[in-house]
Design goal:
Distance between the termini: 79 Å
Strand content: 15-25%
Number of strands: 17
Strand order of the largest sheet: 2-1-3-4-5
Largest sheet: 5 strands, mixed
Radius of gyration: 29 Å
Shape: elongated
């Protein structure tokens, strides 16, 4: 037995903290979970007669973004002097952020509670042990940041190729090779084309919605998880019409970054809110990737900040192409129609014709309408 474990520690309980970061790990990484539960046996071998297992945080991240009831229970037990030692497989199981980690270490030092992992026994009141515990906590946080950085870099590379369109819009299907192609269903094709034609004819999304509902003409909707191959029909709402009109896929382009999560502070913790409209991503406009032909092509064109404003703003330069849902003169793309004001203004915008050069865009550009 280590000399750091004294009789006053053994008179109190040994708290075994068990945590895995995601429900997937809980279901599939069974050996890691069993290793954590096996720490109870080690506690008995070290002389602790009372062993308490805390496993309420299985499937919850230790990054600090989620509230962990089990970790809160552990802190309360340490403060009340009930814990003689805290057992964990490694520092990252207890916390993946320095705030929670150092809070635990400080409380253990005040309550004379030991921290024990598979590598050793640590007394937070000892300067050398305190230094080692600080390094372990910093490495646990750094490891998580490194994993996120690698995953983000791989994801952004996938974005640059246009392969991150999770659900294809109506009128397109995803093939087994991952390509996006036009649906062979002529009824769906005609329905989508009618949306653009009525918007161009009536001048606003609201009037187009009223026409569809008065004529009792339903529009197709994609069933989630079917790669666009299964649809159901329903009368459209104004939001549905705007969703189709504003989708850059109908103009032959893939856009990423229009929405993004944002972090807010609630109850002293960082919370992530999704579907927040993002005007700029990393100080730049959204990354656009051309869809060439019937499949997602390589990233060959980006809209710079000097060329365009944000997606909801008026275009600084607008090139007039053929009528909506009609191919361009080179036959390689379709002109997209964007209802910028969602009322009556119509802007036929160049969204990435692979056959049009920058000089031709400048030559056909006209001042944006207010």
């Amino acid at each position: 037995m280590s000399e750091k474990i004294r009789s006053e520690h053994l008179q109190r309980g040994a708290y075994i903290y068990v945590r895995q970061s995601t429900p997937y790990q809980v279901r599939n990484h069974l050996e890691g979970k069993e290793r954590q539960y096996a720490l109870a046996e080690r506690a008995n071998q070290l002389g602790f007669s009372k062993v308490i297992v805390i496993d309420e945080d299985l499937g919850r991240s230790g990054s600090g973004a989620q509230e962990r009831l089990g970790f809160g229970r552990l802190l309360a037990s340490v403060c009340q002097g009930l814990a003689g030692a805290v057992f964990a497989l490694e520092a990252s199981r207890l916390a993946r952020n320095n705030r929670d980690w150092h809070h635990l270490v400080d409380l253990c030092a005040l309550a004379e509670t030991l921290l024990i992992d598979t590598d050793g026994i640590y007394d937070p009141r000892s300067l050398n042990d305190r230094l080692l515990l600080g390094l372990k906590g910093s490495m646990a946080e750094f490891e998580l940041g490194l994993l996120r950085q690698r995953a983000r870099a791989a994801f952004e590379q996938k974005v640059s190729r246009g392969f991150t369109l999770w659900e294809v819009p109506i009128g397109f299907i995803r093939t087994e090779e991952g390509r996006i192609e036009k649906t062979p269903d002529r009824q769906v094709q005609q329905a989508v084309a009618t949306v653009f034609q009525k918007f161009h004819q009536l001048g606003s999304a609201r009037q187009a919605t009223i026409w569809f509902r008065e004529e009792q003409i339903p529009l197709p909707h994609v069933k989630g998880g079917t790669a666009g191959k299964e649809v159901f029909w329903a009368l459209p709402s104004s939001g549905r019409i705007l969703q189709i009109l504003r989708n850059p896929c109908y103009g032959g382009a893939f856009a990423y970054g229009k929405t993004a999560p944002r972090t807010v502070i609630e109850d002293g913790r960082a919370r992530h809110q999704s579907r927040y409209r993002n005007r700029k991503m990393n100080g730049r406009s959204c990354l656009w990737t051309i869809i060439r032909g019937t499949s997602v092509g390589r990233s060959i064109w980006r809209i710079s900040d000097g060329w365009r404003r944000t997606w909801r703003g008026a275009m600084e330069k607008v090139a007039v192409l053929p009528s909506p849902a009609q191919p361009c003169s080179r036959g390689c793309c379709v002109a997209a129609v964007v209802d910028e004001s969602s009322r009556s203004s119509i802007a036929e915008t160049v969204v990435g014709c692979p056959g049009i050069t920058a000089a031709e865009i400048e030559a056909t550009a006209v001042p944006a309408r207010a």
